[in-house]
Design goal:
rod-shaped; Prefoldin subunit 1; Helix Hairpins; protein folding chaperone; mainly alpha; chaperone; 121 residues
Amino acid sequence: MGENEYDEQVKESFTKFQKQMFESKQIIAMEEETKALKERQMDTASKILSRVKTVDDSKTMYRQIGKAYVVSTKEEELKRMEKIIRECEADIKKSEEKKKYVIRSLEDAQNNLREMVAAHK
């Protein structure tokens, strides 16, 4: 392989790596934002859950949907809050796994570029 061909190949690989790095940083930032949003949502649901547990069973409960209110029972609200918390925990776990995968693939691309440059020396 000629020197010019090798330089072009390294240049092309480096350009691809830069593009992948930029895209990876965007994905990581988006996953961090998603994680923070889900953590806030989970925190809110946990606080509501603890408040609903203190309410007497005989009290009528209302749940807001948009501008309307719907009559609900304490049991239904407890189940709904627990479901929200479980879903948020699952979403946070998925975000973490996706972030780890993106970081791992970025590290692999970086190592491949290093090996390509080191192999020519």
